[in-house]
Specification:
33% helix; 2 domains; 451 residues; single chain
Amino acid sequence: MWKSFNMGNVIYKAYQALRGYSYSSYYRLITQNVKQNKVKQLSDRFLQELLLHAYRKVPYYRSKLSDCGVIYSDDKVNLERFKNLPILTKDIIRQEGSNLWASDYKKRKWYSNSSGGSTGEPLHLIQDREYARWVLATNKFFYTEMLGLSWPFARKVVLWGSEREFLTGGYGFRKLLSDKINNTITLNTFKLSKEAMRDYINIINSFKPEVIIGYAMSLYEICFYASNNGLQLHQPKFVVAQAEMLRDDIRKIIEESFRAKVCNFYGSREASAIAGESTQGLMNVFSFNNLIEIVNSQGKPVGHQEEGEILLTNLHNYSMPLIRYAIGDTGVWDDCAEASSGLAVFKHITGRVMDNFVAKDGSIIPGSTLSLTFNLKDWVKNFQIIQEEAGWIRFLVVTKAVPNLQEQEEIEHKFKKLLGNDCRIDWDYVSEIPKTITGKHLFIKSHVRRK
């Protein structure tokens, strides 16, 4: 029988092919191995190939991999010794710089990226097209296989914070075209005024999306506003919270407002899709995209129900391999790890603590978007942004070079545009950023509470 003709599918595939991001074969490989419970074998194969590549092409890893016995005679791989490889930290990435770049990265359609600064210390990264294809395939697996949505054609509203679009007043042509093809409406939550929240609620109710995706706190603020003003919200099939830790109390409010299940999605700028919550409430690890370990303070694997530091190895970014990378979060394995799907399961993930800022007019500015302010500033080693009052901001900055006055002015301009031209801004240069009593780094901190 002839398959039904879907013009949207044809246009989408043509668009992805034109951009060089076709990923259908990767998606088929993922689903086939998950259904056959062969994810472990697939992950091991990817890991072996990555380690051999890192040994041959990445200066930093050559001696590391041979010294600990992971790579031995004739370029053979011993995965049993993988856990002997030293942990990769953010400080090491900064110190080693281009030594972590593959010698052939220029052949890989590479591009620059930076971490979101969830620990207050953004990293400069390079990634490539092959990595991006695996990200797209993993996202399709999550939304299609785990949530049962027709991805990427399901109607979507995305609540996302974009500083650039807020300052320029709109999205570029490529983004608008991509949204149109992907049946998506993107709403900028960089600054959530009461007027913007009312407009966004009207758009959501009119467009009637099947899934709403966004920062956890942006979703919460929309729901809080709707509840306080007696406004009804359209009921989607699912709400997906990502980019921030989803607290139980926040989840409850979002689910009550949208009358839909909230599924958590865990990712990062360094490695993108890491884990996603199924309709059964299981936080499945995408082991075919990132290999995950949880270790104790001695670097040894923890048992189930024991909290430890999360290490990740991205299996597909050959331009700048991140192997046993300490992402800065902690987690706990669930008892049902290695379930029938072959995907390990997180019981919970902790980390990435942040506040929202409140402007004088009551507008909410999500802390997750403000974390990008100091990205790729060569003179900044570490930072914390503190809102002392609605019209008073303090920057605590640990420098590694002489501050760039032009970049300082640009930062001040952005904050004054958000908080008012009369906003007081103080720069405090310090030797160390204080941590919380649990050892976490609060990179965004507000003493102002919403009225």
